[in-house]
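Case study B.
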Amino acid sequence: MPHLHRNKTEGSSAFLFLLPSLSGFLILSLVPVLGSLVLSLTSWDGLRSLSDFGGAGAFLQDQFVGGAHYAEILGSEEFHRVLRNTLYFILLYLPGILVLSITAALILNRKLPGATLFRVLFYIPVLTSWVAGALVWKWVLSPEYGVLNNLLALVHIQGPGWLFTDTWAMPGIVLASLWKDIGFFGLIILGGLQGISPTYYEAAELDGAGKLQQLYRITIPLLSPTIFFVLIIAVINSIQLFPQVMVMTTTTGISEPRPSTQVLVERIYRYAFRYYKMGYAAAFSWILFVIVFSLTAIQMRLQKVWVHYES
Amino acid sequence: MNRKTGKVFSTALHYLLAGTIAFIVVIPFLWMISTALKDKGALLAVPIQWIPAEPSLDSFRKVFEVFPFARSFFNSVIITFFTVLVTLLSASMAAFAFAKLHFRGKKILFSLFLATLMIPQQVTTIPLFLVLRTFGLLDTYTGVVLPSIFSAFAIFMLRQHMAGIPNDFMEAARIDGASNFMVYRIVILPLVSASLATLGVIIFMTAWNDYFWPLVVLSDRHKMTLTLALNQLNGQYSSWYNVLMAGSLLSMIPIILVYIAAQRWFKTGLQLGGLK
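Model:
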């Protein structure tokens, strides 16, 4: 039976082709996921080994705390503060990034002279690492010697202390994030714009619709699947906000950032790798997972209301 | 307002908007360059100097003096190179198996792989750190590169493209006696070279600019990547903005060079990168 024979050799050669990814999946993904779950139920500091406790059984007997970490985190003032900070970031960032990236995409899509130059300019922040970008912004936002406050002074506005104040530190981080992401999301939206058939606009012109009307009646509805995609990614990224906070509001991540800029991933990093509360940090990371997952699920649900798919 | 003035008006509005956004985007960069060329005294000039009164390249020299910056550069190059290589190799092999070979449990395995995309990196970081420590891989290049051996995103993207290749191409090679490996190497890989390039560009950019994972794995100054080096400088010389900006500029050069050389892959790459 040649057919069966072939399937058999194909199976073994498929195994060889899958071997690197499969072992990576098992050792670097599946085991850590399960490990993280177990870890989150213990108070292990990550320093003592299993044999120090005298085996896995003794380890669990000694270190098992059940859902205590979860209860402690969810009930803590810190967690609520961190959640509020993240929400505040999203509230400022999302409308800004939508308006800016849609505008940038509309500009790029018109292919006027100079479009290539604009495209290159919008890209530069995307290519820059977050650390370099955050360093620049730390300096741009310097209260006395920074560009922003000096520009504001030209129009007689006394700029705030930005990163040095509780109130303005997060808006400062939002400004840096908008700057970093315009090009990235602008390009995704540009892809969506280029997918809209010109016949819609031709028909609208014939019917005498103005440019603004075309924007609201054609472009935005037909762009809604792309905007939806951008929203999903932007929200996930916002919840995982990290390097900008680390670079802009702490010294190399060693000192504590001010309370108004503490966010989820920053807390996880600190508990795990500064305070060695591995179990507590693992529980925190699962709470992060639940937040990301549920926000994405909610958006998936809501898309039926406003996203327009071409039939 | 007639049609013609309407058009002029809209074009003017267009350039105004473009100019405003470009201004916002570019200002920090000009500021970065200007600062890197200043000495420490000129940093604190009020009102600010856009063009330094006495420009100097001294801060670029200083970067190498206060930190093993050349070493960080080398570390970043090595780590990025192997991350790209390992991801492309491992993912293209798996993608080939998923797209073109028959084996039991294919669907389930593929769904399991895809499911990992939903799990934030932070969930696996802590146990992964412990695994690396157990095997003595902390503070090594291997430790930083290792996770790239499994990339569900890369496998997914390559599988989609490979699935689109007609099976006739492979059958012809098989009749000539080609093994599966030869089919993969000689027929499939060349046909998906555009996807490999696009993917390579995304991975290059992510690896070169990565912060979280190297921060967890590397603590020895001599093993640090450029992003970590800048992070360290930020801690030790936090008010020496001329040195910090010089370092930041230097760290951007390779990525800008690659961008210029591989522009068309970047365009598709950045659009696809959103899926990651």
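The radius of gyration of chain A is 25 Å. The remaining cases will be described in the next quarterly update.
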